[in-house]
Each structure stands twice: as C-alpha cells, then as structure tokens.
C-alpha cells in the first residue's frame, strides 16, 4: 500500500509542478479508486481529504521552489492574491451554514466554466519566457478576483486553485510561466490553513500521508523542471484539459439529485 501511494504521490506531484496546480483534482479520484484495483482496502472520503491536503501542501511547496529558482514566482502577486483569497475563504467557510449549498455549487461551477472558456481564447505573449521581475499587474483587479474566488470557494468547500490559472492568464494578462509558478505559491496559502485544521483535529493518517509526500516532493521537482522546457502554448493546452475535467466534475455534482 505504501509503495502504491508513493507512486500516486509521484504522479500527483509531477503534474502539480508541471502545471502549477495543487493536484487535489487528480489526487482525490486516484486515492479513491486505485487502491481497490490492486486489492487494497478502499479509503473513505474523510481519509482521502485529510491526506490529500498534506500532499498538496508539500507538492505545491516543492514545485514552487523550482519555479522560484527559475524566477517564475511573482512575490507581490502571490502576497496580494494569496492573502485576499485566504481571508475570503475563511469568511466563506464561516458563512457556509447560512446559504444554500446547491445554489452556491452551481455558482461556483458557472465561474469555473467561464474560466474554462477563457482557456480557448487566442492569446499572444510578447515574451513567453518572461520572468516575474518584468511583470506588472492590476492590483485592484487581482484583489477582486482573489476575493471572489476565495469567498465562493470557501462557501462550497473547494479552493478553486484551477480557476486562478485562466483568470490570471486572460484577465490579469500574466505570462504563462509566471502564472503557473505564482499559482503554486497561492495554493500554499489555502493548503496551509487546510492542513493545520486537519492536523489539529487528528484527521491525518500519517503513514499514508508520508508515503504520498515522499512521492510528491521529487515528482513536483521533476514537473517543475520540465515545465520550463515545455512550450508555453503546450502548457496552456494541458492546463485547459485539467480545468475542463474539473468543470465537468463540478457540474455533475451540482446537477445530481
């Protein structure tokens, strides 16, 4: 079981580092459905949620460090959007009992769909390999995006990291590689708060989490290393595939029942 979780963590970490995403959208279905295929007991959703947030934290941290070394993490953008998103998500979580959960999920799915559509719009970058120190951004617009996504994400219990990538690329006009590196750093804000909550309440199965982390860290390093060598256009298409997989899954949950 530990060897299998190591390989799952390796895969999740690799795509986290490559595409600048936290990896939960990939890790959750893998952890739910793969172990039984190999004759191991199925993990329940509570176990999966707890060990996934630990994996996401370490994968995002590992991948972000690679992008940081490549100068693709925009510190000011990360602090601006990460701080606003974390505060909004906290407010959303506190208010979540007061609102209709299904209506909010429909709203979140709609936001995700708009973000997904953006990925198919033509986009020309003057310098696809631009580094963070050459990038300027609209601060009020960045705060507005982070507050909106963070608030609704906190209300429905989904951080929505995959939504930030298209919004940063197409609304804030951030270069692809800086977007991917900075998004990993933003994911750390959400993952940190989530992991602290899971650890404090004793929900983390540490042997399982450790196996995932041991795979995730080198996987994220490899993904981050490869990300710099893949064409920006190809990275956008890969991110689009992940975003639309997430969008379809959200609509399935929103419309079920």
UniProtKB/TrEMBL annotation:
Keywords: Cell membrane, Membrane, Transmembrane, Transmembrane helix
InterPro entries on file: TM_pro_TauE-like, TSUP/Inactive_protease-like
Protein's cellular compartments: Cell membrane; Membrane
A matching Pfam family: TauE
Chief location bin: membrane
Segments traversing the membrane: 6-35, 47-65, 77-96, 103-121, 141-165, 177-196, 234-251
Cellular component GO terms held in the UniProt record: plasma membrane
Annotated family: Belongs to the 4-toluene sulfonate uptake permease (TSUP) (TC 2.A.102) family.
Topology of the protein relative to the lipid bilayer: Multi-pass membrane protein
Highest classification ranks of the organism: Bacteria, Bacillati, Bacillota, Clostridia, Eubacteriales
Transit peptide found in the keyword field: no
Protein name, per record: Probable membrane transporter protein
Domain of life: Bacteria
Organism annotation: Thermaerobacter marianensis (strain ATCC 700841 / DSM 12885 / JCM 10246 / 7p75a)
